[in-house]
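Most newcomers find our protein records easier to grasp once they have seen one. Read left to right, the backbone structure tokens trace the chain's path through space. Nothing more is needed to start thinking about how sequence determines fold. An example says more than a description, so a record of this kind follows:
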Amino acid sequence: MILNDLVHRRDGGDIQPIAPTRVLRAAVRMPLIRAMRPIQWTKNGILFAALVFDRKVFQWEPFLSTVVAAILFCCISSAIYLVNDLRDIRGDRLHPTKRLRPLAAGELSRATALRTAILLIAVSLIGSWLIRPELTAIMVGYIALMLTYSLGLKRIAILDVFAIATGFVLRAVAGAVAIAVAISPWLLVCTMLLALFLGFAKRRHELTTLTDAAAHRANLQNYSVPLLDHLIGICASATVLSYAFYTFDAAAVPDNHSMMLTIPFVTYAVFRYLYLVHRRNQGGNPEAVLFADRPLLGSILAWGFGSIAIFYVAS
């Protein structure tokens, strides 16, 4: 009945079809879909790194395996978000924006959220086993890491951000495992450092914008703005340097060192993000910043297209 209402509308006595875009917008506004955080699925784009850098984008089987693995990670990510929201309902109701989340606002029942989380986890584990059993092992490790984070790691300063960064590394490894290729250690280092950079920037935003930061996230009382500024600076520098080393030292890059041409795009993107964090007090939601800031998005797109051109044309 709900699906029928989404797809059709009544005009007088007649039933008229609704445009697909309106159906999509209506679906995204549904409490359960909002609780699953579709915008956060962009994080799983890191699974495509191995596919791109191993030059298998135009090979059907590896491409399909990566797409399915990314979808399964979207499912598992949404399941973790639902579990976290179930645990954090009280705290979220005190937060200026998190109080609007479906569970905190009472728009979504706890039973529905729990059943959906269990279903998503089951689908992810079964689907990953059908691709490669090793992928299932990584997913189990990811689930264990995120649950450990939810149960205690998120209350320990610095280690909380390391846990999130490790989740990104596991995503990158999963992308390589899905197509049975080795992934460059430098790429894993870059992924870890970039995730730490974004994570500490997010903590800084929370610390500087929330009136009573410790009430919203307990471990924020263990941070300070000067400390976070130091950590952000270290991670930003290390990210650029590790990527520079990757462009000429990784086994999969072209022998003519043409990947070094992409270093300016990465450097600008990091500097631009630092500007947004320090001058515009952004960084609380990296996904939103990415799509809202045109210079940042442009530099990332230029890096992406430039990398593909170098890997598949120039080399």
About this structure: The chain is about 70% helix and 5% strand. The chain has a mean pLDDT of 84. The first strand starts at residue 8 and ends at 11.
